[in-house]
Write a structure and sequence with these properties.
148 residues, mainly alpha, 80% helix, 0% strand, globular
């Protein structure tokens, strides 16, 4: 398969949109249900649950918005990928879960790993032509050519 430039741009945009849509509702729920979020984080024995909740809100609201518009996409995807890679080892430890919860925890564990993989693919490939990153690169070229 040898996709065209417009197909690559469309797929990069689609990846950014779908990944952002995955995080944003949960980030907003962390704000509206802050106390419950802190309790859930504390139940997983994460130190400083209040700080962890704020980190979760930033990671799940600000970073997906930046990803959506394609601003500093590789760095944002890297940060969100690391965040997503850490989560299953804190909250979806299926091998220690009670049998009734094991399957659901296992699904969530591997789903998080897959999401991190998609984010790391964005690190490798970038935002595509339909992004603020591409726009900034074009503007930079205009300045270097003396057209701005």
């Amino acid at each position: 398969m040898n996709p065209s430039a417009s197909t690559i741009s469309l797929m990069a945009l689609l990846a950014r949109v779908l990944l952002a849509v995955l995080f944003l509702p949960f980030g907003l729920e962390k704000i509206t249900g802050y106390e419950g979020t802190v309790q859930y984080i504390a139940s997983a024995h994460v130190p400083f649950p209040e700080v962890a909740a704020v980190i979760g809100m930033v990671a799940e609201i600000l970073l997906p918005i930046l990803l959506l518009v394609g601003w500093q996409t590789r760095w944002v995807a890297l940060a969100l990928g690391i965040y997503t890679l850490v989560l299953p080892f804190l909250f979806h430890i299926y091998w220690t879960a009670p049998p009734a919860q094991m399957y659901e925890m296992k699904i969530n564990f591997y789903k998080d790993l897959g999401i991190a993989g998609g984010l790391f693919a964005l690190v490798a490939c970038g935002a595509g032509a339909w992004s603020m990153d591409a726009r900034r690169a074009e503007d930079g070229m205009e300045v270097r050519r003396g057209k701005a």
